Amino acid sequence: MKGENRRLYSPVVVKEIIEKHGFRFSKSLGQNFLIDGNIIDRIIEGSGIGEDDGIIEVGPGIGTLTQKLCESAGKVVAIELDNNLLPILEETLEGYNNVEVIHGDVLKVDLNQIIEERLKGKEIKVVANLPYYITTPIIMKLLEEKIHINKIVVMVQKEVALRMKAAPGNKDYGALSIAVQYYSKPEIIVDVPKNVFMPRPNVDSAVIMLDVYHEPVIKVKDEKLFFNVVKAAFGKRRKTLLNALTGGVELKKEEIEEVLKRSEIDPVRRGETLNIEEFARIADEIYKEMNNY
């Protein structure tokens, strides 16, 4: 049975549901329910969801987005941390036989196991209105743990979306930009104003799509070293690359000078001017230097 349930994004319906269950919004869990059908439609369209897709949703709330996901995808697994929302979800999603709600913390559950046991054989996408206080840890878990995901389409704080998408030289460009773009191709689908949530947050939002690479487009000799170099370069943004890397990696200043020379990178440049390929060159030259290549 699909498509016959009432639309959960209606503010009247949301108020009715939370009053019926005596639900109280938790600031600590960053709970803001989406109450705009047009934005939900844009998320579904941007995700390109079809019947062969298996969806992982993080933080379904009362099921506003979940409802539309169920009507578009083959199977939906929704992971909800707040125990108080479980009986609400049981009621609001009652008409759908292709959804499973898991009570748990997305940062602690084994997502590959969930995919293997509940979504096997499907194209996997993560679609969610993420809690803003843990957006970055969730995104990085999804990308770093080599989880078998094709797309990530999530509502995040607009400032974070801009950082993920930023190019070298942009004020938003930083370590998060490099990390996200190492694993995926980001694209902002739609900007989202504050007034489409209940309760209304203090910040504007955006829906961003990360088209996940099966293999990183940049090949590096040591991923951990690569990200250490990036972290060091952006950790001291006011310093030149030579000074920022000195103390940031296990090489002496003169060795870093030689590394930058071989990488054809001007030592007085700053980290925010380097693109991902240049960071990769530096990291590989440092690897060679440290391993006596």
Describe this entry's structure for a reader:
This protein has 293 residues and is an alpha/beta fold. 40% of the residues lie in helices and 18% in strands. The protein has 12 helices and 9 strands. It has helices at 11-21, 37-47, 64-72, 86-92, 111-118, 135-144, 158-165, 175-183, 223-235, 241-245, 253-262, 276-290; strands spanning 33-34, 53-58, 75-80, 99-103, 123-129, 151-157, 184-192, 197-198, 205-212. The strands form 2 sheets. It has a 7-stranded mixed sheet with strand order 4-3-2-5-6-9-7, with helices on both faces. Helix 4 (86-92) links the parallel strand 3 and strand 4 (99-103). Helix 6 (135-144) runs parallel beside helix 8 (175-183), helix 9 (223-235) crosses helix 12 (276-290) and helix 11 (253-262) packs across helix 12 (276-290). The longest helix is centred in the last third of the chain and has 15 residues, at 276-290. The protein is elongated and about 70 Å long. The mean pLDDT is 93.
Helix-strand blueprint:
Blueprint: H1 11-21, E1 33-34, H2 37-47, E2 53-58, H3 64-72, E3 75-80, H4 86-92, E4 99-103, H5 111-118, E5 123-129, H6 135-144, E6 151-157, H7 158-165, H8 175-183, E7 184-192, E8 197-198, E9 205-212, H9 223-235, H10 241-245, H11 253-262, H12 276-290
Parallel strand pairs: 2-3, 2-5, 3-4, 5-6
Antiparallel strand pairs: 1-8, 6-9, 7-9
Helix pairs in contact: 6-8, 9-12, 11-12
Q: How is this structure best summarized?
A:
This protein is 40% helix and 18% strand.
Helix content: 25-40%
End-to-end gap = 63 Å
Q: List the secondary-structure elements in sequence, H or E.
A: HEHEHEHEHEHEHHEEEHHHH
Structural class by SSE content: alpha/beta
Main β-sheet description: 7 strands, mixed
Rg, alpha carbons: 22 Å
Low-confidence stretches: none
Strand content: 15-25%
Chain-averaged pLDDT: 93
Tally of strands: 9
So what's the overall shape? elongated
For the biggest β-sheet, the strand order reads: 4-3-2-5-6-9-7
- Number of H- or I-type helical stretches: 12
